[in-house]
TrEMBL record:
<dbReference type="InterPro" id="IPR025110">
    <property type="entry name" value="AMP-bd_C"/>
</dbReference>
<dbReference type="Pfam" id="PF13193">
    <property type="entry name" value="AMP-binding_C"/>
</dbReference>
<dbReference type="Pfam" id="PF00501">
    <property type="entry name" value="AMP-binding"/>
</dbReference>
<dbReference type="InterPro" id="IPR042099">
    <property type="entry name" value="ANL_N_sf"/>
</dbReference>
<dbReference type="InterPro" id="IPR050237">
    <property type="entry name" value="ATP-dep_AMP-bd_enzyme"/>
</dbReference>
<dbReference type="InterPro" id="IPR000873">
    <property type="entry name" value="AMP-dep_synth/lig_dom"/>
</dbReference>
<feature type="domain" description="AMP-dependent synthetase/ligase">
    <location>
        <begin position="35"/>
        <end position="384"/>
    </location>
</feature>
<protein>
    <submittedName>
        <fullName>AMP-binding protein</fullName>
    </submittedName>
</protein>
<dbReference type="GO" id="GO:0016878">
    <property type="term" value="F:acid-thiol ligase activity"/>
</dbReference>
<dbReference type="InterPro" id="IPR020845">
    <property type="entry name" value="AMP-binding_CS"/>
</dbReference>
<feature type="domain" description="AMP-binding enzyme C-terminal">
    <location>
        <begin position="434"/>
        <end position="510"/>
    </location>
</feature>
<dbReference type="InterPro" id="IPR045851">
    <property type="entry name" value="AMP-bd_C_sf"/>
</dbReference>
Length: 522
């Protein structure tokens, strides 16, 4: 489950792992006169100082405990970007239960799967409908997952408040939360992270990214994603005593209003958003973006051409980020030479990160490219309750599945992936899961989903369909509506379909995804 004792000992002795807990982040700032009255979190409608946030967290934590939620219980969150999200996360931390980070875009398939694997006891999500009925979805999950007892309305957290009390202190080396993987299997695997391992990555990220109390970090990606959460993201900004601004939508029309209003200094974007921001700025804007100092781009490969345009267009320093919720995060440095910033995905943030490149059989290769494997003080060694730990080498190193090359200075260039996971502009799609859902349609005899390249998203999905009746193949519209209705997140609906009579095969008679991908480029 955890790190071998010699490694753990080394991390402890060298102060890599400390005795800090997630709850300390807010609690310590709230009790420090230099920070108590400073604004900690802001959204379009309201803001809270550290002292106010701490007070509200204390009341909600007590209320959750009063409901019967106990330390180590799992609490599933599905909350749009807002101050309420931060309150809920820290309240769960305070009463020592474990947040499970669902995304607002998740639908019944994902949420039921996650609630079941986590044995979640409660769901915190909005009861009011804002474009989508989150409460109805939570009800569905409760009906299908026995352990779920409480549905908590994130729009009205006050109704759950109780008198603050002492919940005791978590052991920093115990689990703090469960993050979701963008894995290649159907239901996302759960990633168990400890206070000590994750907070090391947050503190180290702050050093590398120059985050301090003057940082105003804007969250435009879904806040529960690992990138805006910790690289350095929300936790980094709060840890440093800075301010977190949460945007309800990532587009310039919404987000730039907040940049201007709150004098935002830093933001994390995925490449398609970075392109929209860049193109909009190149076209000219009346918004005052002069406070913005750093734009991070990560989650998917940023094309070099786009990378070169970001700094001049937005008047910022670009930082590329190659990270994963399982651990390892790489950054380009803020003072790195231009070609390194625009042409690489950075280098490991920690001297304690260990990397190796291997071939398809796991044999080390000296010259890349190769499959990246890694171990380190903030990289997990197993998934939560993992029955088939194929993502880990025999010695516990994490197999990222990414094909990378190393430059002379130790920077990584991401060349692709080996598995069937499609990276749709930073949102990960499991081909297997989408296939399963399409296959349930009566007009489909067989289906294979592959990535096709896309100018904006990097990759998008194409479903090769063998119809039940060749004379009457299903249309894209029909399949998308069908998959949507089956309860899958919108970003996983197929972008294109191709009707085919039979799949090409490999030499050993297996369906060749590679040949199907090649068909798309010819
Ligand atoms: C190419 N591929 C990338 C990049 C991630 C910071 C930033 C991102 C994530 C994240 C994160 C990439 N170029 N710059 O957790 O803390 C692909 C790789 C990787 C996978 C992980 C963070 N940045 N990727 O994206 O868990 O394939 O984390 O293995 O969602 O995204 O996805 P995820």
């Amino acid at each position: 489950m955890s790190w071998p004792s010699e490694l753990a000992q080394k991390y402890r002795q060298n102060g890599v792992w400390s005795d800090e807990t997630f709850d300390d982040i807010v609690a310590r700032k709230a009790s420090d006169p230099a920070f108590a009255d400073k604004v900690a979190v802001v959204d379009a409608d309201r803001s809270l100082t550290y002292a106010e946030l701490d007070d509200r967290v204390g009341r909600l934590a007590a209320g959750l405990a009063e409901l019967g939620i106990a330390p180590d219980d799992r609490v599933l969150l599905q909350i749009p970007n807002s101050v309420a999200y931060i309150e809920a996360v820290f309240a769960v931390f305070r009463m020592r239960a474990l947040p499970v980070f669902g995304l607002p875009a998740h639908r019944a398939t994902e949420l039921v799967g996650v609630a079941r694997s986590a044995d979640a006891v409660a769901i915190i999500s909005p009861a009011s409908t804002r474009g989508f009925d989150y409460r109805a979805l939570a009800e569905t999950v409760r009906e299908q997952v026995d352990t779920v007892r409480h549905l908590i309305d994130s729009d009205d957290l006050e109704q759950f408040w109780a008198e603050p009390r002492d919940h005791g202190r978590a052991d920093p080396e115990d689990l703090g939360f469960l993050q979701l993987s963008g894995g290649s299997t159907g239901v996302p695997k759960l990633i168990p992270r400890t206070h000590a391992d994750y907070l090391y990555s947050v503190r180290r990220s702050n050093e590398v990214c120059g985050v301090d109390q003057d940082t105003v970090y804007l969250v435009v990606l879904p806040a529960a994603h690992n990138f805006p959460m910790s690289s350095p993201g929300i936790l980094g900004a709060l840890h440093a005593g800075g301010t977190v601004v949460l945007a309800a939508a990532p587009l310039p029309s919404v987000a730039w209003e907040l940049v201007q209003r709150d004098r935002v200094t830093m933001v994390g974007l995925v490449p398609p958003l970075a392109r929209i921001w860049t193109e909009t700025a190149e076209g000219g804007t009346d918004f005052d973006l002069s406070s913005l100092a750093t734009v991070q781009v990560g989650g998917a490969r940023c094309p070099d051409e786009l990378a070169r345009r970001i700094s001049p267009a937005l008047g910022v320093t670009l930082q590329q980020v190659f990270g994963m919720a399982e651990g390892l995060v790489c950054y380009t440095g803020l003072d790195d030479p231009e070609d390194e910033v625009t042409g690489t995905q950075g280098r490991p943030m920690s001297e304690w990160d260990e990397l190796r490149l291997v071939d398809e059989d796991g044999v080390p290769v000296t010259d890349g490219p190769g499959f990246l494997e890694t171990q380190g003080p903030y990289t997990i060694r197993t998934y939560w309750k993992d029955a088939s730990p194929s993502s880990f080498a025999d010695d516990g190193w994490y197999r990222t599945g990414d094909v990378v090359e190393l430059t002379g200075r130790g920077n990584l260039i991401v060349r692709g992936r080996g598995t069937d996971r499609i990276n749709r502009g930073g949102e990960k799609v499991s081909a297997e899961q989408v296939e399963e859902h399409i296959l349930a349609h009566p007009a489909v005899r067989d289906v294979i989903v592959v990535a096709s390249s896309d100018q904006y998203l990097g990759e998008r999905t194409c479903a090769y369909v063998i119809p039940a009746d060749l004379a009457e193949p299903p249309t894209l519209g029909v399949l998308r509506a069908f998959v949507r209705a089956s309860g899958l997140a919108e970003w996983k609906l197929p972008d294109a379909i191709k009707v085919i009579e039979a799949f090409p095969e490999t030499g050993v008679g297996k369906v060749s995804r590679k040949k199907l991908r090649e068909l798309l480029t010819h």
